[in-house]
Amino acid sequence: QVQLVESGGGLVQAGGSLRLSCAASASNLLSIDAMAWYRQAPGKQRELVAQITSGGSTTLADSVKGRFTISRDNAKNTLYLQMNSLKPEDTAVYYCNTDYHIFHRRGSSWGQGTQVTVSS
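Below the sequence we write its predicted structure tokens.
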């Protein structure tokens, strides 16, 4: 099991920036694999925003390309999402997700979410 704690959300004006962090804590026997940020706006389904593999390969949703950057610090087991040029449509609860494995068992964990609100 992996515990994920997000931070960095808040209220920002359109055009502003925020940096989200997600700290993962787990047994030393466990390996963290791909990590990702998802978001869910009111009345909408949860959607993938960005993903990063353990090797550092990244994938970004078309709606955030050129504005958001995903990164991770493997030594600290921490995931980041740098969000620039924010738009009102970026308003959502942002969730951290990680895949992991321990020996031959695989799993996935979610954080509790952090609210991002972008005012026009």
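The chain has a mean pLDDT of 95.
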